[in-house]
Amino acid sequence: MEDAEVGSLLHHFVAIDGDKGENGIVSYAITAGNTNGFFTLEEKTGLLFLSAPLDYETQRLHPLTVRAVDHGLPQLSSTQTLTVEVGDVNDQPPVFSQSVYNASVAENRDPGEPVVRVSATDKDSDGSTSMCL
Ligand SMILES: [Ca+2]
Ligand SMILES: [Ca+2]
Ligand SMILES: [Ca+2]
Q1: Domain count, the chain
Q2: pTM of this prediction?
Q3: Where is the Cadherin domain (predicted)?
Q4: How far does residue 90's CA lie from ligand 2's centre (Å)?
Q5: Ligand showing the shortest atom-to-Cα distance for residue 70
């Protein structure tokens, strides 16, 4: 969710390496998809944390490429991709499409007839409201 707190745990990458000793010790790193620094990956544990607030309205999907590399010689590695999908929360107020409306009403108009239509949009995903005045 876009309101997830900075520092929260998002994912745990686990790479199994069957070798013994240094050849089987694995380090993790994000190699692509983290240009804005939203995520921190702990090198030794493979734990992925949120390091900056996400915004659904700005970016919904964050595809990350993570590399696991062992400490052997030569080093062997493999990569995995994880796409973090941001969930929408209601953090956008509705905004009128116009800040000033002029409405003139003839005095002989029937009560109940619409005078002017105003509309407001809301950047949250299902937020679109309109009403008659
Ligand atoms: Ca290995
Ligand atoms: Ca937002
Ligand atoms: Ca939102």
Answers
A1: 2
A2: 0.74
A3: 2-96
A4: 8
A5: 1
Backbone angles phi, psi at 107, to 5 degrees: -70, -20
Please indicate, yes or no, whether residues 51 and 69 belong to a single structural domain of this protein: yes
Domain range for residue 15?
9-85
Ligand 2 centroid – CA 110 distance (Å): 43
Determine the Cα–Cα distance for residues 72 and 111; give it in Å rounded to an integer.
83
Task: Identify the nearest ligand to the CA of 53 by its number.
Answer: 2
Query: Could you say which DSSP state residue 2 is in?
Result: T
Cβ distance 52 to 37 under 8 Å? yes
CATH of the domain at 60: 2.60.40.60
Closest CA to 120 of 129, 132, 111: 129
pLDDT in tens, 29-65: 999 999 999 999 999 999 999 999 999 999 999 999 9
Indicate whether 98 and 79 sit together in one domain.
no
